[in-house]
Amino acid sequence: MTKRKKVKVKKKKSSKTKNTEPMDLASFEGLLSDMFGDSDEETPLRKAQDIMYDAWEISDPKRRIALARRALEISPDCADAYALFAEETASSLTEALNLYRQGVEAGERALGKDAFEEDVDHFWSILETRPYMRARAGLAECCWASGRHEEAIQHYKDMLRLNPNDNQGIRDLLMPRLIEMGRDEEAEVLFKEYQDDGMASWIYSRALLDFRKIGDSEISRNSLKAAVKKNNHIPAYLLGRKKMPQSLPDYYSPGAETEAVFYVKENLKAWEATPRAFEWLLDQTK
Questions:
Q1: How many domains, in total, are found in the chain?
Q2: 79: pLDDT confidence band, cut at 50, 70 and 90?
Q3: Is the pLDDT of residue 7 over 80?
Q4: What is the rounded average pLDDT for all residues in the chain?
Q5: Are residues 93 and 218 in the same domain?
Q6: pTM summary value
Q7: What is the arithmetic mean of pLDDT over 217-238?
Q8: What range defines the domain where residue 222 resides?
Q9: Same-domain status, 37 and 166
Q10: Nearest of 142, 178, 138 to residue 157 by alpha carbon
Q11: Is residue 76 domain-resident?
């Protein structure tokens, strides 16, 4: 088996750097692969992954799909190829879910069982794990969308176990889903794990959890004030004063309306699942 090379990344378990600016992931990871990969051993999987880096840089969907198909012909263990198929060829949620699941299985074969125990805590810093993690994130989202909520939750939690630095922002997906399901104790544990996160989404989660726990109080009001200070656009979108755009922006900037749009997309149902939360928000933000 090819020895995996780690990219040295400063680990910060309690917080993470969020991708708030557009990034050419293909070029970036391709460059890292050239720098840190095992260039002496050109395995079929390595060749297939290089093709996927090329595919990501192409805007034409047909060419991207053709390259993904070629990558799988070279190596059936290329998880990113399945992820691309799920995103660009699936005609139904079920089909997308199955493709992502195949991607996860491909990633598991490529990494081997030992990686899921030996590489915990620095999982993302190993380039070869990232296609697997992308496929698993897609699988978790499809599971949630198709009503397989418990399976989705388990995927999210295990991804955070593997990569507590949370480079993918998994906690921002898990938190509102735990609240929506009424699993507040688990949500509190998750919040404490990343309590140093200073992004607006996390601070609004604190405010909502405080309101769910103790209702309108000095504590919950102060939490909400801190959240509004971080991003004052979010209440307008939550309350329907501003309409959500038909499509998400490509990226967001902290404190901007783009951040509010991303927050509301993932968190609206958590607020809807909290009795009197909208009335409280309206009263506190008049």
A1: 2
A2: very high
A3: no
A4: 89
A5: no
A6: 0.86
A7: 98
A8: 183-284
A9: yes
A10: 178
A11: yes
